[in-house]
Please model this.
Amino acid sequence: MTGKRNSKLKWAVHQKRWFGKWHLYLGIIAGAVLCVVGLTGSILVFADEIDQALNKELFRSMESQRRYSIGEIATLVPQKYPGKKVDYVFLPKEGDPNISYVCYNFTTEEQFFINPYTATLTGKRLHHSSFIGFVTELHTNLLMHGPGQYIVGLATLCLLILTVSGLRLWVPQQYRKWKQWRSVLTVNFRSGWKRQNYDWHNVLGIYSAPVVVMLSLTGFALTFGPVFIAFLFILTGRSPQSVQQIFGQKSEWVAGRKALTPASAATVARTQFPNAVIRGIAYPADSTAAYRFDLRSNGVSKEGNRIMLSIDQYTGKILLNSETDFPNIGNSYLTWLVPLHLGTFGGLPTRILAFLGGLVPSLLFVTGFIVWWPRFKKQQGKPGAVPPRPARDEARLQAIRALPAAGYFGIHFKKGLKYGLLLLGSALVAGLLYGLISGILIQPALFAVLYTGIPVMVNAVIALLVLITGGFVLLLLKRPVKGLLKYFSLSLAILLVFLPFVLAITLLSKNLF
Model:
């Protein structure tokens, strides 16, 4: 027993609580991945500008005559280049008369650039061979298709937990004294470099927290989009299977019937939304598929509202209209998720915030490592490990463990309510501060609450399943189940804090998003 005790790590004072351990371990495990994801994310905030600056000959065309509309280009390209398979035509930038149209072949990942005045091919490339294509792949899946995206998604979840646990560690114990707050809000430049490094770690963490919370939350939602979309439908009383029904509608194929040209289908789209701009057209994949249009209309976000429209390739019938077929809360995912992740919802000011936010994980990883490594080296081989908690706390914990199941559940349920309120407040404040510089406050704040509430709901479902299945197994093995009971009580309490707000946002979503 003595050898085992001596082999334990000596915990620093700030690591003696559970959130301190989470902060340390997740920082070590996910830190390197978060550095890569954060730095590439900062580049992608200005991806369009960088890509167009590096490839002017592809994106820029000289004005010579009337500019073709996107519908006309989508009609002309297959006629002029029948040997090239094109799946999607996209307008990369609005308001620039000399910007080229971009055509995509999703199978080969080829991009074709089309002169908007002559409809001629001006260049082509493989998307992943470009600088921005490489950075995008690195950011979204670490150049590992399949498992890579889930590694990135879980890393963003780790970043969210790191930020919240860091805030909890940062709050001074004597929080009513201004002197204590001043010491944790500033860097003491008169102290040694180690103390300054520690101060920089704290200061960078606290001041960047609102942006980092929003970037990590939206990144997690992008990776696990199907789960978030399913819960958005569930919140409105619709089954997740209805998503497949909406997207699964087919064109009414009849032998010998001639399909509409993209220009004709675009006329239908413009009739449906006369004030919207068509940004992209996807060709039907086969004889029963439909045209898909991506449109943008004016909205609260500087990026506008995104609209998806599917049109029968033969009859021109509207098969999907996201404005009417999606639940109102679905617009939060369609319109706000990517702009919040890239900072484009508020224009240049919030893009700069998102750019800086992407740099923060690397800075915190380096400063945090400098704080941790000397402590780790110092304790190697030294006997007499420090207990993980002070004796008084340990006695109190033993007393809680000795309570009957109902009392044990109640103690942790109350803690869960407190944690839930802190998490709810953190999400709300993060959204407000992220949008403050642009004057767009309400939508980011409510988005943060809603999209934090969805993982809370998922976690509560998992906790219930773990309690039922794991508890049954442990009872058969005559092992204690209080650990599972603790997890469930905390999860249930946090869910009950979030649920009223999530439901209220869902009911009022039509006027909010």
The two ends are 60 Å apart (CA to CA). The CA atoms of residues 75 and 261 lie 6 Å apart. The first strand starts at residue 88 and ends at 90.
